[in-house]
Amino acid sequence: MDLAPHLWALGKWRSMRASIYFHPPLNPDDFLSRKSLAVKTYDIITQGNEDLRQNRLD
Length: 58
Fold this sequence. Notes:
This protein is mainly alpha-helical. It has helices at 3-11, 34-53. The chain has a domain at 31-58. 50% of the residues lie in helices and 0% in strands. It starts with a helix and ends in a 5-residue tail after the last helix.
């Protein structure tokens, strides 16, 4: 399926609210493997989502 029709359908919702949080960048060279980078990325995003839900971000 194409992404555009889904984005268009989401854009029609009047009551939708979204939050976007940009985390500091990670340098892939700081990790020994793609898996360790993926685990770190997952941990950072999980913590950011929790912070958003708890209103702990500025």
